[in-house]
Amino acid sequence: MSAHPRLSVVVVAYRMARQAENTLFTLSTRYQRGIADDDYEVIFIENGSDDVLGEARALATGPNVRYFLREEPGTSPAPALNFGVSRARAATVGLMIDGARLITPRVLAYALAARKMDEHAVVVVPGYHLGSDEQHKAPQHDEASEQALLEAVSWRENGYRLFEVATQSGANRHGVFHPFMESNCLFCSLESYRKVGGADERFDLPGGGSVNLYLYRRIALLPETQLVVLPGEGSFHQFHGGITTKADPQLDAVLAEHRVQLATILGQPFEAPKREPILFGAVTSWALPALKHSVDRGLQRFARFRAQGTVAWVDDPAPTE
User: Fold this and answer.
1) Could you report the per-residue pLDDT of 125-161, keeping only the tens digit for each?
2) What is the C-alpha to C-alpha distance for residues 203 and 200, in angstroms, rounded to an integer?
3) Sequence-distant (≥ 6) Cβ neighbours of residue 121 within 8 angstroms
4) Could you tell me which residues come within 8 angstroms of residue 27 by beta carbon, excluding any fewer than 6 positions away?
5) Strand partners, 102
């Protein structure tokens, strides 16, 4: 393992051993393309539970994995994310606060290339849910059905086939030409993370509430930030019975509580940051339907703003639309 990696990817997991092992596989050089083990480290933070992956299994996924087991007194992953970033040895950090995410094979190489292109680049990977609908809207979707989906597309051999068995996440349901609410696979400078104060630990609701939305907004709206979106890549959510990603009759009440806490800490009602993105990277045939969806929705959005005589990217210092 290199003592001076170019990238530190921080992954937080809680009670998701199978899913986290899959996530770590997608972060390994057995799967990622265009990157070597010495280029990056994976800092895997596991909060104690009755379903831990454990150090031996975590380290077996790659020679550049560092494992930390924490016994958190609360129910938020924010302290664990901050702990992981504090151990980062690279100037660029990747943030995966939900350890149940499968990523596509060129995410890491493109993140480093984009950060080399612009030192203030914040690299965003679009999010998807495995299954035919968002998992909280699909009570029939469970671990068994998900494993069957994954086995059907041989994703370990070709990670882009995950697009075949997934649907858009609510965080970016309209695609890459609309503002994102959050990113569950985000890359930025360690300096930017520190500048916004990291993951705000006041988000103490189960699962961290809306800490990820807050963190993404703060980083994306830094004046120097150049937003870079990878339209051909993806971050695919695996089912694990998460607070906001499982079918639950109380979900509306849970989300209402999240919104109240988010607005209180933010000091205003939440809005997704509206910065004009640079689209970066190849788009495989598997991702083309997602790109078409983005184009269709984007055309509608831009026509609406033109008709109103306003710009679509109001948070950008110099939007070009």
Assistant:
1) 999 999 875 655 656 768 888 899 999 999 999 999 9
2) 6
3) 114, 115, 187, 188, 225, 226, 227, 228
4) 9, 11, 42, 61, 62, 103, 108
5) 236
The phi-psi region of residue 138 (left if phi > 0; otherwise alpha if psi is between -120 and 50; otherwise beta) is beta
Pairing relationship of beta strands 226-229 and 101-103 according to DSSP bridges: unpaired
Eight-state DSSP code of residue 38:
G
| pLDDT for the residue numbered 254 | 79
Report the distance separating Cα 236 and Cα 169, nearest Å. 9
| Per-residue confidence (pLDDT) for residue 72, from 0 to 100 | 75
For residues 193-215, give the mean pLDDT.
95
* CATH fold for the domain made of 7-308: Spore Coat Polysaccharide Biosynthesis Protein SpsA; Chain A (3.90.550)
Contacts of 252 (CB under 8 A, 6+ apart): none
Q: How far apart are CA 72 and CA 67, in angstroms?
A: 15
> What sign does the CA torsion over 179, 24, 7, 265 have?
positive
Strands 235-237 and 101-103: antiparallel
Of 109 and 240, the structure prediction assigns the larger pLDDT to 109
Q: What percent of the chain has pLDDT over 90?
A: 82
Give the span between the Cα atoms of 100 and 18, in whole angstroms. Answer: 9
